[in-house]
Amino acid sequence: MTPLPLIDNLEHLPNPFTQFETIATHLKGNSPHLNDPEYCRDLQLALCFIYSYNGSQATFNSYRREVERLLLWSWNVASCPTSQLRRDQIEEFIHFCVAPPENWIGTKNVARFKLYMGERTPNKDWRPFVAHVSKLEFKNGDVPKTKQHSLSQAAIRATFSILSSYYGFLMQEDAIQQNPVALIRQKSKFVKKEVTRKQVRRISNLQWDYVTETAEMLAEEDPAMHERTLFIMNALLGMYLRISELVADERSAPVMGDFIKDSDGHWWFKVLSKGNKERLVAVSDDMLNALIRYRRFRDLPTLPTIAENTPLIPKNRGQGAMTSSRQVRNIVQFCFDRAYERMCEDGMREDADDLRVATVHWLRHTGISEDVKTRPKEHVREDAGHASMATTDKYIDTEYRERHASGRKKALRPN
């Protein structure tokens, strides 16, 4: 059967610790399993686990996706609550996720629930899995097909990690005696071990020159629209920001007062990053000049003042801070597309190709990759907010340069 969603968006989800009966009553009409107390308890535990991650919308969504898939499979395929699944059944579930039936796969992201006659109603067009095509394939006119669905290695690793946390929670609640995910000894048959370090996805210095020149040209032609564009591009690369660190969400709203001057006269930018951890990013002279230009355009004093609450990135229309990460993606993509066109016009189509597939996150990678060439990697790690030095080490490509240099002279006809 084609499953219906169980768990609504965070803003529409009542607190399951105190209002579970409301949630269960609302879902019973669409999920007969909930007439059984065991399945009701299963859903309640799952909701409490997921709701514990309500401090971050992205984390909540990730945990909801994995646990909801498990609930739907366990109830509809294994015919038991998730608390009764054995190790071998968890392996069956992973195999199922790798190759789900077509009626479990959608070709576009749709809302889980719709508003119908004043009530949140499960959306029959929703599917637990969604097939995608790459950005380049989409530009070439390709559309997602259910038969082409596949899970990346990163997605499979995330499934194992989140499900292990879920069963750890069930053990703490005395719902199970042991963690079936932890009992799987040969995860390598699902998750391949990386033999070598992956190269970081980034744009070249030439491409960045064209991108930033394009943003500057747009700002000169239409300041009202694109001075903000120029500042966003500089902030994403110059301070290696993630989109979530640039737009306002339920955790924080970046403001001008997040730029802070210390007692030595040095400027820093305060960021609330992944895991609700605060970090300070060193603000370069170029980045400070970009900030000054942006503030002058907005008729603000040259530099921020202590506790200034002016939104860092304002909405195009209306009051307040920008809250849409999609809008930032569209702004960056617009710059990438215009820069690609300019490079092609200048006879550099081959050099421009990466801009057709680049994403916003590539700007963060590019900024870190460039800085780690000249700055102590400990400083770059702190600015980037990496949890370990191993993450920062991924951006050091000296090893690749030396390895390729030693391999260039390999002969096809050895002497």
From TrEMBL:
Name of the protein in its database record: Integrase
Localisation: Cytoplasm
Positions with biased composition (Basic and acidic residues): 375-385, 394-405
Keyword Metal-binding set for record: no
Keywords, alphabetical: DNA integration, DNA recombination, DNA-binding
InterPro entries: DNA_brk_join_enz, Integrase-like_cat_sf, Integrase_catalytic, Integrase_recombinase_N, Tyrosine_recombinase_XerCD
Organism, as annotated: Marinomonas ushuaiensis DSM 15871
An MF annotation (GO) of this entry: DNA binding
